[in-house]
Design a protein that fits this description.
alpha+beta, Immunoglobulin-like, 4-stranded antiparallel beta sheet, 3-stranded antiparallel beta sheet, 2 helices, 42% strand
């Protein structure tokens, strides 16, 4: 059986590498960045008669990694986590030493403009099971009031 072998000229090989780099590496850059844990976490916002609840999915973080700031009715939620791990091993004869150092960095920042109906003095937050829960209660005057009778004078 004869098989035809294709011979690549150097110019076409370089061109192919360049095309692969542009088409695969550059075009998939946002996806690759997300795999490095630098994406912005998803947020759910629920409104009830009592207030608003933010649910921010951020697994792998601890409550000490978060920072919540309120300035001029703008709520900023940010987090930062740095992890360093170093492993050092020697072989049996202690003639060679292997050292491996790995580190990762994860951070994000989200901002929310709060409506005037939020009682900013009573905002609270809780982190559990990888979800940050932020409770934004409404001011009393913003809550629905029951119907009342008005007397006619």
């Amino acid at each position: 059986m004869l098989v035809r072998k294709r011979v690549h000229r150097p110019a076409s090989a370089i061109s192919q590498i360049f095309d692969t780099f542009l088409n695969e590496d550059i075009m998939n850059f946002p996806t690759k960045v997300n795999h490095r844990k630098s994406s912005i976490p998803a947020v759910n916002i629920k409104e009830s008669d009592e207030g608003f609840n933010l649910e921010l999915a951020a697994p792998g973080l601890g409550k000490e990694d978060f920072k919540l700031e309120l300035e001029n009715d703008i709520l900023t939620i940010s987090a930062e986590k740095k992890v360093e791990k170093e492993t050092a091993e020697e072989n049996e004869n202690k003639t060679e030493k292997y050292t491996r150092r790995e580190f990762s960095f994860q951070s994000f920042k989200r901002t929310f403009t709060l409506p005037e109906t939020v009682d900013i003095s009573n905002i609270n937050a809780n982190y559990e099971n990888g979800v940050l829960l932020v409770n934004l209660p409404k001011k009393e005057e913003a809550k629905p009031q029951p119907a009342r009778l008005i007397e006619i004078a």
